């Protein structure tokens, strides 16, 4: 304690469970400031995945499908997740198999770089699936 006071620093207990306890002479305020600064930097570099949505119809044309597929690819390359929705109206509800085929086709057309995060399910009159990129570890 005398050495710490002479240097104008703090005596910090590092490992209290050991016998004898281990202490370090340091500027504790500076240490806490650097810890906070490191955590702020880590948060700044952290990318959160945003959920983007693409809406399709069961009777979508081939060109329109390709355009929507390119939009999905750009969203996925940007690190976002994509919610693909098929909207049914009126009697189209009788043909849910068409919507399921379209969603499965989207997943297969995107290839192995994409994983289906949430399987195909119904939300009222909409059929929904969520896609995300595969993390390479």
Structure overview:
This protein has 137 residues and is of the alpha+beta class. It has two domains: 2-45, Roll (Ubiquitin-like (UB roll)); 51-133, Translation Initiation Factor IF3 (2-Layer Sandwich). It has helices at 2-7, 28-45, 62-77, 96-110, and strands spanning 10-15, 22-26, 51-56, 81-87, 114-123, 126-133. It is rod-shaped, with a radius of gyration of 27 Å.
CATH topology of the largest domain: Translation Initiation Factor IF3
Oligomer: single chain
| Alpha-beta classification | alpha+beta
Q: What is the typical, i.e. mean, pLDDT?
A: 89
Residues in helices, as a percent range: 40-55%
Report the radius of gyration as a whole number of Å. Answer: 27 Å
Number of helices in the DSSP assignment: 4
Question: Which helices and strands, and how do they pair?
Answer:
Blueprint: H1 2-7, E1 10-15, E2 22-26, H2 28-45, E3 51-56, H3 62-77, E4 81-87, H4 96-110, E5 114-123, E6 126-133
Parallel strand pairs: 3-4
Antiparallel strand pairs: 1-2, 4-6, 5-6
Task: Please supply descriptive tags for the structure shown above.
137 residues, alpha+beta, Ubiquitin-like (UB roll), Translation Initiation Factor IF3, 2 domains, 4-stranded mixed β-sheet
Please summarize what this structure is.
By secondary structure, this protein is of the alpha+beta class. 40% of the residues lie in helices and 31% in strands. A four-stranded mixed β-sheet has the order 3-4-6-5, covered by helices on one side.
């Amino acid at each position: 304690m005398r050495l710490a006071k002479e240097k104008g620093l703090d005596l910090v207990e590092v490992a209290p469970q050991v016998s004898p306890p281990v202490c370090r002479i340091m500027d504790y305020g500076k240490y806490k400031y650097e810890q906070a600064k490191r955590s702020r930097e880590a948060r700044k570099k952290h990318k959160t995945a945003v959920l983007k949505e693409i809406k399709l119809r069961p009777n979508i044309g081939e060109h329109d499908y390709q355009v929507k597929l390119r939009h999905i690819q750009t969203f996925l390359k940007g690190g976002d997740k994509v919610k693909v929705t098929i909207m049914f109206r009126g009697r189209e509800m009788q043909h849910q198999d068409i919507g399921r085929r379209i969603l499965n086709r989207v997943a297969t057309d995107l290839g192995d770089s994409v994983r289906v995060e949430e399987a195909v399910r119904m939300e009222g009159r909409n059929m929904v699936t969520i896609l995300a990129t595969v993390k390479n570890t």
